[in-house]
């Protein structure tokens, strides 16, 4: 960013009270941002996206087509990777948000987060911010995964590598490119690991990956690790595959 250039943020929410609340946070904590507002993802313009440094999207209200909304954001995430995308996610949206919106340039926050969490994520930027908040990973998680019998499950080396990269916010396409494998192979390894762990959904899988047990099994410090840690681990994956 050029010195002295004002940064741009877009707030997306169909609820005026949410827009007003986020406006207050941004004006109080990030006065160097110029703000624009939209009621939905459909209202975004190309000019807004090209100029934006930050997008805060509210995924907490009632929605008749949540998958369609998430898929629209998914498309934008792949096109505008210089933007830090912050999604405020309700439990209803959580499985879809994890499946479609978690990537290296996005952060998922619970709609029950304190304001300080949002401020910290924005301050960290899209290279150092946590990818998914602890509040979203907190119980109710997956009780059966805490059973001591799970500790005896042995994942293959390939399955571990795939889960580790998924836990760091990588998508199937990115992992396939990094490891020089087909998308079909990476998906099969992910599904095989889920079967071994008796996991039935992507949301449960990410809950396990980011649990203390999952971090221990996969040798992951945590999903909140520094970017330099992630780059080092990704480099090791490439060298050892």
Automatic annotation (TrEMBL):
Question: What is the superkingdom listed in this entry's lineage?
Answer: Bacteria
Residues in domain HTH luxR-type? Answer: 148-213
Alphabetized, the UniProt keywords read:
DNA-binding
Chain segments annotated as coiled-coil in the UniProt record: none
Q: Which GO terms describe its biological process?
A: regulation of DNA-templated transcription
SUPFAM superfamilies the UniProt entry points to: C-terminal effector domain of the bipartite response regulators
Q: Does the keyword DNA-binding apply?
A: yes
Q: Which Pfam families match?
A: GerE
- What InterPro entries does the record tag this protein with? Sig_transdc_resp-reg_C-effctor, Tscrpt_reg_LuxR_C, WalR-like, WH-like_DNA-bd_sf
Cite the GO molecular-function annotations of the record: DNA binding
- Output this protein's name: Response regulator transcription factor
